[in-house]
Amino acid sequence: MNRLEFQGLADERLSDAEALLRSGRYACAYYVSGYTIECALKACISRRTQRDDFPPKEAAKYYVHDLSRLLEFAGLEDAFAQNGSLDPAFRANWGVVKDWSEEARYQSAGEREAREILAAITDPDHGVLQWLRKNW
Hints:
The chain is mainly alpha-helical. It has one domain (3-133): Four Helix Bundle (Hemerythrin (Met), subunit A) (Up-down Bundle), CATH 1.20.120. 64% of the residues lie in helices and 0% in strands. It contains 7 helices and no strands. The protein has helices spanning 3-22, 26-47, 67-73, 77-86, 88-97, 111-122, 128-133. Helix 1 runs antiparallel to helix 2 (26-47) and helix 1 runs antiparallel to helix 6 (111-122).
Protein backbone atom coordinates (compact mmCIF):
# COMPACT_ATOMS: atom_id res chain seq x y z
CA MET A 1 0.00 0.00 0.00
CA ASN A 2 1.10 3.56 -0.44
CA ARG A 3 0.66 6.85 1.33
CA LEU A 4 -2.39 7.97 -0.67
CA GLU A 5 -4.15 4.68 -0.03
CA PHE A 6 -3.57 4.99 3.71
CA GLN A 7 -4.83 8.58 3.62
CA GLY A 8 -7.99 7.40 1.88
CA LEU A 9 -8.43 4.57 4.37
CA ALA A 10 -8.08 6.98 7.28
CA ASP A 11 -10.89 9.11 5.85
CA GLU A 12 -13.03 6.02 5.17
CA ARG A 13 -12.54 4.65 8.68
CA LEU A 14 -13.48 8.02 10.13
CA SER A 15 -16.71 8.04 8.09
CA ASP A 16 -17.39 4.46 9.17
CA ALA A 17 -16.86 5.32 12.84
CA GLU A 18 -19.16 8.33 12.61
CA ALA A 19 -21.87 6.25 10.92
CA LEU A 20 -21.55 3.55 13.56
CA LEU A 21 -21.84 6.17 16.31
CA ARG A 22 -25.00 7.61 14.73
CA SER A 23 -26.43 4.08 14.56
CA GLY A 24 -25.83 3.49 18.25
CA ARG A 25 -23.11 0.90 17.54
CA TYR A 26 -20.80 2.38 20.16
CA ALA A 27 -18.32 -0.46 20.64
CA CYS A 28 -17.81 -0.74 16.88
CA ALA A 29 -17.54 3.04 16.53
CA TYR A 30 -14.80 3.06 19.16
CA TYR A 31 -12.97 0.17 17.54
CA VAL A 32 -13.04 1.62 14.02
CA SER A 33 -12.02 5.05 15.32
CA GLY A 34 -8.65 3.68 16.31
CA TYR A 35 -8.06 2.41 12.79
CA THR A 36 -8.54 5.97 11.58
CA ILE A 37 -5.41 6.98 13.48
CA GLU A 38 -3.56 3.78 12.64
CA CYS A 39 -4.08 4.42 8.92
CA ALA A 40 -3.07 8.07 9.29
CA LEU A 41 0.14 7.07 11.08
CA LYS A 42 0.91 4.50 8.41
CA ALA A 43 0.47 7.26 5.81
CA CYS A 44 3.06 9.26 7.76
CA ILE A 45 5.41 6.25 7.78
CA SER A 46 4.88 5.81 4.04
CA ARG A 47 5.82 9.43 3.46
CA ARG A 48 9.30 8.62 4.76
CA THR A 49 9.96 6.09 2.00
CA GLN A 50 11.30 7.13 -1.38
CA ARG A 51 8.19 6.13 -3.28
CA ASP A 52 5.65 6.75 -0.51
CA ASP A 53 5.08 3.01 -0.20
CA PHE A 54 4.48 1.35 3.11
CA PRO A 55 7.51 -0.76 4.05
CA PRO A 56 7.42 -4.34 2.75
CA LYS A 57 6.20 -7.22 4.88
CA GLU A 58 9.80 -8.09 5.78
CA ALA A 59 9.80 -4.92 7.87
CA ALA A 60 7.53 -6.65 10.38
CA LYS A 61 8.03 -4.02 13.04
CA TYR A 62 5.79 -1.64 11.06
CA TYR A 63 2.92 -4.13 10.97
CA VAL A 64 1.61 -3.38 14.43
CA HIS A 65 -1.51 -1.76 15.84
CA ASP A 66 0.27 0.10 18.65
CA LEU A 67 -0.36 3.80 17.99
CA SER A 68 2.54 5.00 20.15
CA ARG A 69 4.99 2.74 18.33
CA LEU A 70 3.64 3.82 14.95
CA LEU A 71 4.15 7.44 15.98
CA GLU A 72 7.77 6.57 16.73
CA PHE A 73 8.22 4.73 13.40
CA ALA A 74 6.82 7.77 11.60
CA GLY A 75 9.63 9.84 13.11
CA LEU A 76 7.16 12.26 14.63
CA GLU A 77 7.84 11.84 18.34
CA ASP A 78 9.80 15.08 18.75
CA ALA A 79 7.36 17.18 16.72
CA PHE A 80 4.51 15.52 18.57
CA ALA A 81 6.03 16.25 21.97
CA GLN A 82 6.67 19.85 21.00
CA ASN A 83 3.10 20.32 19.81
CA GLY A 84 1.80 18.65 22.96
CA SER A 85 3.81 20.97 25.18
CA LEU A 86 2.37 24.01 23.39
CA ASP A 87 -1.18 22.69 23.15
CA PRO A 88 -2.59 21.01 26.29
CA ALA A 89 -5.88 20.21 24.53
CA PHE A 90 -3.99 18.32 21.82
CA ARG A 91 -2.01 16.46 24.48
CA ALA A 92 -5.27 15.52 26.22
CA ASN A 93 -6.75 14.31 22.93
CA TRP A 94 -3.72 12.10 22.35
CA GLY A 95 -4.20 10.78 25.88
CA VAL A 96 -7.62 9.51 24.82
CA VAL A 97 -6.50 8.11 21.47
CA LYS A 98 -3.24 6.42 22.51
CA ASP A 99 -5.06 3.98 24.79
CA TRP A 100 -6.87 2.41 21.85
CA SER A 101 -5.72 -1.04 20.82
CA GLU A 102 -6.89 -3.67 18.40
CA GLU A 103 -8.01 -5.62 21.45
CA ALA A 104 -10.95 -3.20 21.57
CA ARG A 105 -12.71 -5.60 19.21
CA TYR A 106 -13.21 -7.89 22.20
CA GLN A 107 -14.31 -5.17 24.58
CA SER A 108 -17.58 -3.39 25.03
CA ALA A 109 -17.10 0.37 24.75
CA GLY A 110 -20.07 2.53 25.57
CA GLU A 111 -21.42 5.71 24.07
CA ARG A 112 -19.18 7.91 26.22
CA GLU A 113 -15.99 6.18 25.09
CA ALA A 114 -17.03 6.23 21.44
CA ARG A 115 -17.90 9.92 21.52
CA GLU A 116 -14.75 10.74 23.45
CA ILE A 117 -12.35 9.06 21.03
CA LEU A 118 -14.11 10.52 17.98
CA ALA A 119 -14.01 13.99 19.50
CA ALA A 120 -10.28 13.58 20.24
CA ILE A 121 -9.67 12.53 16.65
CA THR A 122 -11.82 15.16 14.94
CA ASP A 123 -11.40 18.24 17.14
CA PRO A 124 -10.96 20.96 14.47
CA ASP A 125 -8.40 22.91 16.49
CA HIS A 126 -6.65 20.29 18.63
CA GLY A 127 -7.51 16.93 17.02
CA VAL A 128 -5.06 14.13 16.51
CA LEU A 129 -6.12 13.51 12.90
CA GLN A 130 -5.81 17.20 12.05
CA TRP A 131 -2.22 17.17 13.30
CA LEU A 132 -1.35 13.95 11.49
CA ARG A 133 -2.75 15.30 8.22
CA LYS A 134 -0.11 18.05 8.38
CA ASN A 135 2.54 15.32 8.47
CA TRP A 136 1.30 12.76 6.00
